[in-house]
Amino acid sequence: MSTIRTDPKFPTWPSILSALIARGDLDRDQAYWAMGEVMTGNASDAQVAGFLVALRSKGETVAELTGLVEAMIANARPLVVEGERLDIVGTGGDRQNTINISTMSSLVCAGAGARIVKHGNRASSSSSGSADVLEALGVRLDVPIENLNAVLDTANITFCFANIFHPSMRNAAVPRRELGVPTAFNFMGPLTNPSGPTASAIGCADLRMAPLMAGVLAARGVRALVFRGEDGLDELTTTADNRVWEVRDGTVTESRFDARDLGMARVTLDDLRGGDAQHNAQVVRDVLDGVRGPARDAVLLNAAAGLVAFDQDASGSVQDRLGKAVVKAAESIDSGSARLVLEKWVKATA
């Protein structure tokens, strides 16, 4: 597609929408301007809806997604965190109503020594989002921003509740709800952690968007694994093959692997189905208590992805590094370290 540029000093909604309707790509600055208008409430509901539909119909680019993400972060409440930090998160939208795999994986990675600053929200397309299950486990979500670093120091994990950090998203709430279809906004949450993670493990159910998200992370210069299960999950899966886009030193490398090659049994999606927040919270407790089965395997696999992204050493293939990381993840559970992380987290937010 061609890139159609408006005057970057004087963009307008007619010029932006005309470009997209003509199936032209916006540059990063144009996308940033449009998102800035949305975030500050200067765009009408009709303009927001028109922009999101036209962009989705054409198909987003890395430059466009980068501009949108940068504008969203610029309008977020900041969280300054020093040192290395990891986020493990999924886009959602796979509509498979699985257990909270990324949340459990975050606890396991924290138990294995990775500092976790998790970004998340309540459920939008499942029965229990990360915020819902954490609340059911006893973690307070309304911790003042200025106290989140203290929680991190105590428990090696903390949570950025999207509702608190991205209040400007309310300006797009009505058109998003009334449209009722996926838009670029569905993929921006994992890319807009206000702490600016140095490493990310991101599940993306949408095959077209996964490499674009990896491209945004590559431009940012962070380490990351972006992945999807070939069963359509926004997780690494034990029910089918997996595709991975690894981000290192500004480049993206794609690979595939089968969890069976890491010694894990092939299961069905029904084995990974979840329920409401209370049900999923009990699954979390069971996994952290060492109960074996499909849930544990899925958590080990996704925690391994987080540990691989967090590790600055990229020697060997992704599959080989995942295999070694699975062992570390299992040690985190079996030693009681992951369970202790949860206990400290609950106390730190009480």
TrEMBL record:
Binding annotation for 5-phospho-alpha-D-ribose 1-diphosphate: 90, 93-94, 98, 100-103, 118-126, 130
GO terms of molecular function:
anthranilate phosphoribosyltransferase activity
Cofactor binding summary note: Binds 2 magnesium ions per monomer.
Quick one: which residues bind Mg(2+) 1?
102, 235
Please list the residue ranges annotated as the Glycosyl transferase family 3 N-terminal domain. 15-76
Give the reaction(s) catalysed. N-(5-phospho-beta-D-ribosyl)anthranilate + diphosphate = 5-phospho-alpha-D-ribose 1-diphosphate + anthranilate
EC no. given is 2.4.2.18
Which pathway, metabolic or otherwise, does it act in? Amino-acid biosynthesis; L-tryptophan biosynthesis; L-tryptophan from chorismate: step 2/5
Keyword terms of this UniProt record: Amino-acid biosynthesis, Aromatic amino acid biosynthesis, Glycosyltransferase, Magnesium, Metal-binding, Transferase, Tryptophan biosynthesis
Q: What does this protein do?
A: Catalyzes the transfer of the phosphoribosyl group of 5-phosphorylribose-1-pyrophosphate (PRPP) to anthranilate to yield N-(5'-phosphoribosyl)-anthranilate (PRA).
Which HAMAP family does the annotation name?
TrpD
Q: How does it assemble?
A: Homodimer.
Q: What is this protein called?
A: Anthranilate phosphoribosyltransferase
